[in-house]
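Extended Data, panel c. Modelled sequence:
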Amino acid sequence: MALDPALIDGLPQACDWCPRKCGANRKAGQTGFCGADGTLRVARAALHFWEEPPLSGTAGSGAVFFSGCPLRCCYCQNASIATNQVGKEISLERLVEIFFELRDLGALNINLVTPTHYAPLIAKAAVAARQQGFDLPFVWNTSGYETPEALRALAPVADVFLADFKYADSDLAQMYSRAADYPQVALGALDTMIEITGKPAFDEYQGQVRMIKGVVVRHLLLPAHEEDSEAAVKLLHERYGNKVILSLMNQYTPVIDPASAEARKFPNLLVAPTDFEYDMLLDYADDLGIEDYFWQEGGAVDESFIPPFDLTGV
């Protein structure tokens, strides 16, 4: 398994690994927009049971939650790790050990959650694990805010992409994530992910159906933005058809402090979308002729979707 030369030197002197291209000298310890510096930080490594069925199954996905994030959405339910408040510095050798420990717990795969800003280090660890006989698929669990160049460099280690497509509208992306280029960037990233993995593929592992290749695209219904969700679903369906599997989510969890500036600016984010609004989105997907997609049953807004970031397994 050969890595792209772009990964060989690890952390960059002028970081351009995500679309922010902030130029931080992370090799020298400078902190980038993502909040990461020259260290590798993990907040949790444990079995996770709330991903899509062929990723979690009944055994669980081996989720490794990395600290920091290049996107920083104002409504992020994992804000404590996205803003680097929680996390422990670990070595590459320790990350490899974590992969094997999760496998020994029965994980269906290794689920790398928000990994983009550590991509060179994670790729090295994945290759080292493969050289030691590691045989689970690696799932690149991402906001979708990725560069094609970085994704192509990861081709040897990313088996499945679990990618968000958060917004169809650039103004909405700017308002909530300070990333007006998000729709265009995320579509380019999805194009590249499909180029790398091809159509979804599955096997049977320990009596469970497991996804081993392909792209799952998640879209989360945001409160008061049903029209953007419909636009996103239509765009994804028309552009990709059955090349990806859509996952339409209703697990938006209000986490914004009601007394904060964000709450005053975006009062709609203080409440979750209604079941009726979600049902309307599912009906819209059906009307478009989308026959095979994941959806969530009522009651998805629950604390179980926000695991404790208490350094478990780190």
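The chain is about 30% helix and 20% strand. This feature is highlighted in the accompanying rendering.
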